[in-house]
Design brief:
heterodimer; A: 782 residues; Aldehyde Oxidoreductase, domain 4; 3 domains; 7-stranded mixed beta sheet; 19 helices; 27% helix; 23% strand; globular; B: 162 residues; Ubiquitin-like (UB roll); 5-stranded mixed beta sheet
Chain lengths: 782, 162
């Protein structure tokens, strides 16, 4: 490891602009002649649009145009799509209802967009939006997924009878039920995985610009995957073919999944710019709009059970889930509760038989899609709550019950598709037990009791499938796209390097970690490496950043391109030094002839490639290579988290007094950045466990948590400082041995917290978020 | 309309603004100081914290007209030339930021916290004082460490100066 190479704890290259206020986010960009768009949104959860009167609004000062769903339909702009096909157990395809970029004739959730008001200033657009008169016929609404299939529930999309989108199964039902029939112990749980709002701190924003002279569109947007946005807007929505549409995602202020999706507002701004003669149309969400329209996460209602032999050996697991999809199918909404969820139900354990059924339903709520972890937190919560409950039911130590059932041989084929490639689950557990001082827990519990506090400890040994994903595999499971990544390495004549990547950084620090890889390979200082991302005009192809894929997939593509650059550089160096190509090694920024003192600095080889005065016969000038990398398997980060809490029995308030996270992420490029990813994920998982929850009025379908006054975000004094450590087994599937670290914290932590609280209070019947009121009630019900 | 004169990051500015213009809008839209961010509509998130006459203010809760005659410092005016303010430097050194969106408000709130309380701050105090600033990326762990380090450094600098 060099001082700036792989494994070095270097500070981030990108920080200077952010700490001096020079970050450039979408809302910071002002194009010439910009106009401002404000959406009129439905105040009703479910209604027919009888009429829209824009007369008064059109006459308001500064108003340029007001566009409705009828205008959109008239211009034949396509609807938004869900890009992953799921088939029901009877073989029928999922029932996706239409999702127009501006609602037409019917609104299906509070916040559904009904009209777009465009004015010279944002204030004028807001004022005019107040004057748009929409006449609605209010329809009954359903928001609870467990009620969506009831006979008296309103039908949300005609194509989906009973609001059922798909009825999906995975695993062997017969073998699973047979195992339960003969099991010595059966543990059962009813689980609600609470609905969350991702809440990246930067609200979404979009600027659509149509250049009439070039017949070309530009979209500036808060996206985790600008190339996917271009693909969808071109191929499905039909805005323009790809060569006539540029998508730029500049600095993006957090994503967590919410900025993966192709949203209605982007389509509307692009289309509107052309409608008004080519002036840019800019829309920026306010926070209430974000709560109403950014895709939510989780919202599963599950019945789960675990079968065990007399000695605690796991025999079978079954879960039956209703997953809330919301009012429309978002871009990857179908994949989240199915192949990102059911496939993880084996956890870290040998479980011979597994079966899961997921029914996905429409409700009159904001669309639900992947949020940090995406399906895997829900699976982990099922498995780890069942295991902890089993330990209590059988009177076993929860750590030892886990240890007894851990998978120890790799590769391991689970009964639910995945093949785990590497891991050392026992090492994670042992390191976590030592860090938390498990042996000292009884004394700490006794001491807490003297202060009137209930102290508890909870475990979670999670596994996730990341590095999304092998294209052929996901294609066979229904994905509409391949999930490779692309990269280009441009060596300039002076020896500096530009890396063009399809990955997108919105907080992950790619400008630093990707440069560290180049430093490791070519010995070039980080300041001489530029990472270029987030612009489809600069980087030709990409699939973006989600599913903890930028290291395992994005950096693997860079490795492949660097391999090609090195190979060509070696040929040139061998030619210039009259040596054999096989003898050239690259060390510390120099190309050396092994076993001699002959060497050339890298920049001289780069210069030679471009002067082209003396290249090997037949070689093309230049030193620039590109590559696509398609993973061969998912990667499998895994770890053990232990949470220790103190509960005040008088108030029900939980304090997390200790939180230990031991993760195995494979190769770590920058420990400082990886630890930061874990910290952030833990805070989101603790938020889910203790305080966060989207709430709707069950009758009217009104969103009750539409601001930071109502939706409880974790603050600095809600979370502790974390103890974070690592175990490393390299991933055998990619060149750097990386597994991914972005989602682990949010996946592993909720069950650890709830297991700790239920241990403390002696009542296992507690749902998330475990607010003081709920915990107090659980204490007093026990 | 209101005519206002104020000093922003050491420069005198005068403007005529709509009465309803928020100070944060004036800074972002009129002066192009886009380092001050808007993350919510209810004065909860703190992404817009600036210093007005040396005290931390959420720029979304103040009208531009109310800032008439004030001295305003935004994140763009915190460093001295190329010399970062100790809080800025500490955020970088301790990885106190990821996406960077809450960062300007966090840094300005931290500057105010340290100025107001003086001395090296402990973890509990910092966590309590950060009540008005939300970060979704860092889990606050490294923000707390950064502010702790900066407060110790600034206390040391004050001591050395005395």
């Amino acid at each position: 490891m060099g001082v700036e190479g792989i494994g070095a704890r270097v500070t981030r290259k990108e920080d200077r602009r952010f700490i001096t206020g020079k970050g450039r986010y979408t809302d910071d960009i002002v194009l010439k002649d910009t106009t401002y768009g404000v959406f009129v949104r439905s105040p009703h959860a479910h209604a027919k649009i009888l009429s829209i009167d824009t007369t008064a609004a059109k006459a308001a000062p500064g108003v340029i145009e007001i566009l409705t769903g009828a205008d959109l339909a008239g211009d034949r702009i396509g609807g938004l799509i869900c890009g992953w096909m799921i088939h029901s157990r009877d073989g029928t395809p999922m029932k996706a209802g239409a999702h127009p970029a501006i609602a037409h004739e019917r609104v299906r959730h509070v916040g559904d967009q009904v009209a777009l008001v465009i004015a010279e200033t944002k204030a004028q657009a807001r004022d005019a939006a107040e004057l748009v008169e929409v006449d609605y016929e209010i329809l009954p609404a359903v928001v609870d997924p467990a009620r969506a299939m009831d006979a008296d529930a309103p039908l949300i999309h005609d194509v989906a009878p009973s609001n059922l989108i798909f009825d999906w199964v995975l695993g062997d039902e017969e073998a699973t039920e047979a195992a339960f029939a003969k099991a010595a112990h059966v543990v059962e749980l009813d689980i609600i995985n609470n609905r969350l709002s991702p809440n990246p701190m930067e609200p979404r924003s979009a600027i659509g610009y149509y250049d009439e002279a070039e017949e070309h569109y530009d979209l500036y947007t808060t996206s985790q995957n600008p190339h996917v946005a271009r693909l969808v807007l071109s191929a499905f929505v039909g805005i323009a073919p790809e060569h006539k549409l540029r998508v730029v995602a500049p600095d993006v202020g957090g994503g967590f999944g919410a900025k993966i999706y192709i949203y209605p507002e982007e389509t509307a701004c692009l289309w509107a710019s052309k409608r008004i003669g080519g002036r840019p149309v800019k829309w920026t969400s306010d926070r209430t709009e974000a709560f109403l329209t950014d895709c939510h996460g989780r919202d599963h209602v599950t019945k789960a059970k675990l079968a065990l032999a007399e000695d605690g050996t796991f025999l079978a697991l079954r879960s039956d889930t209703i997953a809330n999809i919301g009012a429309y199918m978002s871009t990857f909404s179908s994949a989240t509760p199915t192949y990102l969820h059911g496939t993880l139900l084996s956890g870290q354990y040998v479980i011979p038989a597994i079966f899961t059924n997921v029914k996905a339903v429409y409700t009159n709520t904001t669309p639900v899609d992947a949020y940090r972890g995406a399906g895997r937190p829900e699976a982990t919560y099922i498995v780890e709550r069942l295991v902890e409950t089993a330990a209590r039911q059988l009177g076993m130590d929860p750590a030892e019950l886990r240890r007894k059932n851990f998978i120890r041989q790799f590769p391991y084929q689970t009964p639910v598709i995945l093949t785990y490639d590497a891991g050392d689950f026992e090492a994670n557990l042992d390191k976590a037990l030592a860090a938390v001082d498990y042996a000292g827990f009884p004394a700490r519990k006794a001491e807490a009791k003297t202060r009137g506090k209930l102290r508890g400890i909870g475990f979670s040994s999670y596994i996730e499938a990341c590095g999304i994903a092998p294209s052929q595999a996901v294609g066979s499971l229904g994905s509409g796209v391949g999930l490779w990544e692309s990269a280009e390495v441009r060596v300039n004549p002076v020896g500096t390097v530009e890396i063009l990547t399809g990955s997108h950084s919105h907080g992950q620090g790619h400008e630093t970690t990707f440069a560290q890889l180049v430093n490791e390979r070519l010995g070039i200082g980080l300041n001489n490496v530029q990472i270029v991302h987030g612009d489809t005009d600069k980087v030709q192809f990409g699939m973006g950043t989600y599913g903890s894929r930028s290291g395992a997939v994005g950096m693997s593509a860079i490795v492949k391109a660097l391999d090609k650059v090195e190979a060509k550089a070696k040929k040139i160096a061998a030619h210039l030094m009259e040596a054999s190509e096989a003898d050239i090694v690259i060390e510390d920024g120099e190309l050396k002839v092994a076993g001699t003192d002959k060497k050339l600095p890298f920049f001289q080889v780069a210069l030679a490639a471009y002067t082209a005065h003396n290249l090997p016969a037949g070689m093309e000038p230049g030193l620039k290579e590109s590559a696509f990398y398609d993973p061969t398997n998912f990667t499998y980060p895994a770890g053990t988290y232990i949470c220790e809490v103190e509960v005040d029995p008088d108030t029900g308030k939980t304090e997390i007094v200790q939180f230990v996270a031991v993760d195995d992420f494979g190769r770590i490029i920058n420990p400082m950045i990886v630890e930061g990813q874990v910290h952030g994920g833990l805070a989101q998982g603790i938020g889910q466990a203790l305080m966060e929850g989207v709430s709707y009025d069950p009758e009217s379908g009104q969103l009750l948590t539409g601001s930071y006054m109502d939706y409880c975000m974790p603050r600095a004094d809600d979370v502790p400082s974390f103890k974070v450590d690592h175990v490393t087994t390299l991933c055998p599937g990619n060149p750097l041995g990386m597994k991914g670290c972005g989602e682990a914290g949010a996946i592993g932590s909720p069950p650890a917290v709830i297991n700790a609280i239920t241990d403390a209070i002696g009542n296992n019947n507690l749902s998330m978020p475990a607010t003081p009121a709920k915990v107090w009630a659980a204490i007093n019900a026990a | 309309m209101a005519t206002i004169s104020l000093t922003v990051n050491g420069k005198a500015v005068t403007a005529t603004v709509e009465d309803r213009t928020l100070l944060v809008q004036y800074l972002r839209e009129n002066l192009g100081l886009t380092g001050t961010h808007v993350g919510c509509d209810t004065s909860q998130c703190g992404a817009c914290v600036i210093l007005v006459d040396g005290r931390a203010v959420k720029a979304c809760t103040m009208l531009a007209a109310q800032a008439d005659g004030s001295t305003v410092t935004t994140i763009e005016g915190l460093a001295t030339g190329d010399q970062l303010h100790p809080v800025q430097a500490a955020f970088r050194e301790h990885h106190g930021l990821q996406c960077g969106f809450c960062t300007p408000g966090m840094i300005m709130a931290a500057v105010d916290m340290i100025n107001r309380r003086g001395g090296a701050l402990d973890e509990q105090t910092i966590r309590h004082e950060l009540e008005g600033n939300i970060c979704r990326c860092t889990g606050y762990h490294n923000i707390v460490k950064a502010i702790q380090a900066a407060s110790a450094e600034m206390a040391g600098m004050r001591q050395a100066a005395e």
